[in-house]
Amino acid sequence: MHEHRIVNPATEEVVATVAATTPAEVDAAVARAAAAQRRWAALPPADRARLLRRFAAAVDDHREELAQLEVREAGHPVTNARWEAGNVRDLLDYAAGGVERLTGRQIPVDGGIDLTFAEPLGVVAVIAPWNFPMPVAAWGTAPALAAGNAVLLKPAEATPLTALRLAELGLAAGLPEGLFQALPGDGPVTGTALVGHPGVAKVVFTGSTETGAEIMAACARQVKPVTLELGGKSPNVVFADADVEAAAAAAPASFLDNTGQDCCARSRILVEHGVYDRFLELLEAAVKTFRAGDPAAEETRMGPLISAAHRERVRSYVPEDAPAAIRGEIPAGPGYWYPATVLEAAPEDRAAVEEIFGPVAVIMPFEDEDDAVRLANATDYGLSGSVWTRDAGRALRVSRSIAAGNLSVNSHSSVRYSTPFGGYRRSGLGRELGPDALTAFTQTKNVFLSTEEQQ
Ligand code: NAD
Question: pTM for this one?
Answer without folding.
Answer: 0.97
